[in-house]
Amino acid sequence: MSRRAVLWVAFVIVHVGVAALGFLLPNEPMGDVYRVYEPWSRAWLAGLDIQPVLSAGFPAGAALVGITESWVYPQLAIVPMLIAWLFSWLAGYEVGWAILVTLCDALAFALLVGRGRSTGRWVAAWFWLAFIAVLGPVGMYRLDGVTVPLAIAGSLWLVGRPWVGSALLAVAMWIKVWPAALIAAALVAVRRRLAVLGAAVAVSAAVVVWVLAMGGASHLFGFVLDQTDRGLQLEAPVSTVYVWQAVARIPGSQIYYEQDLLTFQVTGPLVDTVIAIMTPLLVLAVAAVAGVGVYKARGGASFAGLYPNLALALVLALIVFNKVGSPQYMTWIAAPIVVGLAIDRRRWWPPAILALVIAGFTLGVYPLAYFSLLLAWPFPATLLTIRNVLVVVLFVWVVVRLCRVPTHPRVRAPRHADALA
Question: Is the pTM of this model over 0.70?
Answer without folding.
Answer: yes
